[in-house]
From TrEMBL:
This is C2H2-type domain-containing protein. It comes from the Eukaryota. GO terms for cellular component: nucleus. One of its GO terms (molecular function) is DNA-binding transcription factor activity, RNA polymerase II-specific. Residues 2-29, 29-52 form the C2H2-type domain. PANTHER family: BLOODY FINGERS-RELATED, KRAB AND ZINC FINGER DOMAIN-CONTAINING. It comes from Macrosiphum euphorbiae (potato aphid). PROSITE patterns: ZINC_FINGER_C2H2_1, ZINC_FINGER_C2H2_2. The keyword Cell cycle does not apply.
Amino acid sequence: MFKCEQCPSVFTAKRNLIRHEKTHAGIRFPCTACPSTFSYKNNLNKHLKNIHGIVNVPAHLRPIPAAPITTQPAPAQQVQIAPQIFVPDAPAGGSNMLTEDEICMKAMDEFEDTG
């Protein structure tokens, strides 16, 4: 029997203990299609198959996975402050994009012209 030193879990195979110990390290496996993360890679694979319909995708065709997410806090980083930027008070230029109403009216006019 192989006992976890960090919790009461006990395993019959050493490989299962090693796999379990990774959960205590805070390693997570992120889904490449949604924000979900998983403690075990096989749970991620089941999720990909059952939720997103992704099954046995060859490694060279898989999306590049994000780096494993750890639950440990990141070391404090220095924050850099950008220099102050002054923007003149000038009116913004007009847009040449059509509104939904204008698009509908144009489509109706074209339909009437062809009929």
